[in-house]
């Protein structure tokens, strides 16, 4: 596992634990010699994790659409910053650069990226592991929704076997590193 794409908010949210979790995940990535690929912003959880990886001696590649430059200034200290035309190109580029994915708390953009990535795995467009860092039970409502979709016959439990959930960055990274696709 050389690189992991992290989806997360360009805001920090209302709980300090979200920022702490982002920084802990950044340290864990560096400890495992895994490069961070992310959306390129200097703000929110995106800024927290990218700065922590860089501070800890790791490598960070940011991928940012030109249309976001006014709202989300890029982190200028990145190892590599890639500019793309739009959000679709951003997701494709981040996927191409990554061996796995982790979502942290975030908003609509985080959910959109996460669900595309899950759908792509389900359709076998990729065979990469996907993790949710469930800081302060942030993803519990989403997990309940997925369980309900399984119960109601819209998703098979087997189709989510590539999805790993933990509140512990160390445990989550270990699960992702040890994932073996079918």
Automatic annotation (TrEMBL):
It holds the Pfam family Lysine_decarbox. GO terms for molecular function: hydrolase activity, hydrolyzing N-glycosyl compounds. One of its GO terms (cellular component) is cytosol. Its EC number is 3.2.2.n1. GO terms for biological process: cytokinin biosynthetic process. It is an enzyme of class 3 (hydrolase). The keyword Ion transport does not apply. It comes from the Bacteria. Keywords: Cytokinin biosynthesis, Hydrolase. This is Cytokinin riboside 5'-monophosphate phosphoribohydrolase. The gene is yvdD.
